[in-house]
Amino acid sequence: MIEIKLKLASETYGLKERGKMGYVLRVRMASFFSGAAIASFAGFYILHRDYKIAHESFANQMKNLHESLDSRISALEKLRQTENSKQVEASE
């Protein structure tokens, strides 16, 4: 008699717990996936920001290099013009 009551109580308890476990599992899965989505968004944002900073740095380096080369080329062209003008004056 006691065994039957215990068995009946455990079956009833098991059914109630099974329903709760499904709900808890759904809540945990939803929490996990929402956390993963937020972490993914944060990661992509950080990568995008790092990419923009790196691109800006690289663009500035190339701009400075281009300006440096332009000034050197201009100096060489001026030197060439002065040498050519001196040669013309010497030949006259």
Automatic annotation (TrEMBL):
Source domain of life: Eukaryota
Listed name of the protein: Uncharacterized protein
Keyword Transmembrane: yes
Keywords, alphabetical: Membrane, Transmembrane, Transmembrane helix
Annotated transmembrane regions: 29-47
